[in-house]
């Protein structure tokens, strides 16, 4: 039985059909399929297929976003059940995203967030015009592995540097990787301000985050624990 | 006749206006500065939560006071760029970070010396009616970078300038530099040498700085060029027609703020729209749909009788290759045929991230051809051919006719050595020819004679502002006695 169900789940993600994905997730629970089974054998393979097709230019960003929405719908059903059973889906990592202070451009950053979510990361999107202090506070609060700062203007690129400086000042820098992106941002700029990486586009940002999170430099013990010292800092 | 291209039929233009006015009145526009909101409210807009809902009547009133034409002036005070009608001018693209290194053919961060060279080459090429503040100078602190680009252009050029500011204090410094160059604020207002690009943020957002910028420019009497940049499919409707509606609404809102601040101040219906690449998330400037958006947006502005601008002649190729030539050449022709008053973008590569002086001279070839195309085909002799046949009969010998000698220079455009018509198998490749041409132009360049008073006035502003930023040098300013601020 599950093979057909898993195939339908996979297809609902490829089709970018949130209603279908959501109801398949509900059905699975009703049929007693373990949530983690449904995720790992049904929905995630769909997202992997979507990623491959995207890389081959067979599907495009709007298709990818629809698939991400479908994934979200399925997870919305499965995660509470998973939590109820006392489990949690292993996270690829925790990422805090935002656009630098003074900059109100968000499309690139939002795209990165959507793709990271679809790839299993927990993403906290702070929106636009975000100060270094807010990046730092959120990174601490959610135990971020990676902070991503976007800037579309040559004038707001400096905000990326100040986020790094704030993270350093607050003692978070050794445990949080910082990535930067945005139209005027270059690898050279990323190096100059001491960022850990730079993504030319949303796809390469996902690959970058994966490689950074997997990098041994951020050992499990070095990651910030949730809420750690959040009080002492207020 | 002069050839002309329109891309929208009149019924579609009408619908674009209907929807643009409906957007302004119902959805409204975000406006970031209280001064602009107050102006709009005083004119009858409904204002709340930083959003202005602007009635059509208020926009129509603003459109009545906008000048239908104006000029930019060169250093000598001659009218050199005519914004209005179907006149077409070109200028290099602006404010990019990298330059394609002529030796390595790889992008690298641009320096003040690169901008100085580009200004000099632009100065030598008649295809470019105006200069632009083309490159961010990476050896100049970013705090002073905006006005420093303008200083370099003023230092090395006599042509009008397309520029822009990224903050209000910088805008004031730039206006101070222009006033120093023109001999005072009133002289600048009377004969403006520069126009400032002002960009709303898509969709429908005149940010704090952009709206403040509009008001400052209007009151200073310095022309403003509205650069609405809908990104079709991302920050604007995916349909080209829908993105043109958004462009119209943003531009109409900008004009309304601008004219409320100072009725009759010069303003241009410009833009840098693009489609959104659904694979990469980039904004391809060389895409045909991007050019179609530019033409559609400009046509909407022209239907109001307004001066127009567009961003064309840029390519997304990373190197100077056939793609660069095809994209830049075709959009130069399209823009020229559309009768767009100022077409910015020449020289640029890689989604506006990289400039190239070699590409600038190559683009000048395409632009010269486009300019020839615009001259069109028309009778230059009493009879079109009969008079000449009366002399030659069937001999076919037209070369020695006096008409041939008298008219061939008018009929035929003579490209530079960048265009290969030699038929010689040993002709160097395009990149080599372009480099050679750049060298020749730089060798023949002569700095305009600027009076010592004007130089001193420019440097006084520059020294004052550089010192505030703690900067001691003036890189790219080649005159030895002025090379240092410390004096």
Can I get a quick summary?
Chain A is α/β, with parallel strands linked by helices and 234 residues long.
Mean pLDDT value of chain B: 95
CATH class of chain B: Alpha Beta
Task: Identify the CATH architecture of chain B.
Answer: Alpha-Beta Barrel
Low-confidence parts of chain A, pLDDT < 50 over ≥5 residues? Answer: 218-234
Give helix % range of chain A: 40-55%
Please state roughly what percent of the residues of chain A sit in beta strands, choosing from under 5%, 5-15%, 15-25%, 25-35%, 35-45% or over 45%: 5-15%
Q: Can you tell me about this structure?
A:
- The complex is a heterodimer of chains A (234) and B (487).
- Chain A is an alpha/beta fold.
- Helices cover 54% and strands 9% of the residues of chain A.
- Chain A has a five-stranded parallel beta sheet with strand order 2-1-3-4-5, sandwiched between helices.
- The longest helix of chain A is centred in the N-terminal third of the chain and has 24 residues, at 61-84.
- The radius of gyration of chain A is 19 Å and the shape is elongated.
- Chain B is built from 16 helices and 20 strands.
- Chain B has helices at residues 10-26, 34-42, 56-65, 112-124, 142-156, 168-182, 185-190, 208-220, 240-261, 288-303, 322-337, 357-375, 386-392, 402-411, 430-444, 452-468, and strands at 29-31, 46-48, 51-53, 70-73, 79-83, 89-92, 98-100, 107-109, 131-132, 161-164, 194-198, 205-206, 224-228, 231-232, 267-271, 274-275, 309-311, 342-346, 348-349, 354-355.
- Chain B has one domain (1-378, 415-487): Trimethylamine methyltransferase-like (TIM Barrel, Alpha-Beta Barrel), CATH 3.20.20.480.
- Chain B is an alpha/beta fold.
- The longest helix of chain B has 22 residues, at 240-261.
- Chains A and B meet through helix 5 of A and loops of B.
